[in-house]
Amino acid sequence: MKIASFNVRRFGVKKCTDPKVSLIINKIVSRYDIIVILEVFDAKEKAAKKLVEQLNSGDGPRYNYVLSKPLGRNDYKEQYLFVFRDFVLIPIHTTPKDSVQEIDELYDVYLTVKEKWDTEKIIFLGDFNADGAYVSNKKMKTIRLRKDPDLHWLIDDDVDTTAVKTTDFSYDRIVVHNSILKHIVPNSAKPFNFQDEYKLPDEEVLAVSDHYPVEVEICLAKKQNLKKKMKTEK
């Protein structure tokens, strides 16, 4: 199973109806069993339906989707689009200036989900804005989601998740509980550089997004202790 989060800058009908852009997005999404798309503006649900129709037009696996209501603290509101093949996944796109507070408050969500659904099989993923001027190394150490030894940040602090060549920030992250960690395929958590993969010029990349998807592969069938394997490979 391969899971990803992708901040597709201002995803809506315009991108789904642009032949070049939609083809790239479809190629990216079809790599995954579950993907959370951030920065969605699709009040009438036309873009979500169009994307899934495009994904299901071929002979491959069938996809479905869930689109959240518009979410946000103030006037700025966006939606989360879950696209998945037939865990608890918690998406996040923090407000840059409030990143430290919002990432820390995810810990309260974690505790609530654990109690309400009686599960620890939880994955947080999305655009945490967890780097640069938004979250310093000093402030990172104060965040409860970071301090809990049962929670593991799979995208390291020095990994660039941005698609802009003049930036080098680890904004997008995937965080999993211990119960999930043992099923993570070693070295599978990383950004997907679709520019290199599809040999795209800069302008086509930025027409899609200024972020790369962050992805991870999960193998629920394996019985070996992958956590030990990951430690031995370091």
Give a short summary of the structure:
Helix content is 32%, strand content 24%. The chain has 234 residues and is α+β, with helices and mostly antiparallel strands.
How would you describe this protein?
The protein has 234 residues and is α+β, with helices and mostly antiparallel strands. It has one domain: Endonuclease/exonuclease/phosphatase (Deoxyribonuclease I, Chain A). The chain is built from ten helices and ten strands. The chain has helices at residues 13-16, 19-29, 46-55, 99-117, 137-140, 144-147, 178-181, 194-198, 202-208, 226-233, and strands at residues 2-11, 34-40, 63-67, 79-85, 88-93, 122-127, 151-153, 172-177, 190-191, 214-217. The protein has a six-stranded mixed beta sheet. It has a four-stranded mixed beta sheet with strand order 5-6-8-7. It is globular and about 45 Å long. The two termini are 23 Å apart. Residues 222-234 have low confidence and may be disordered.
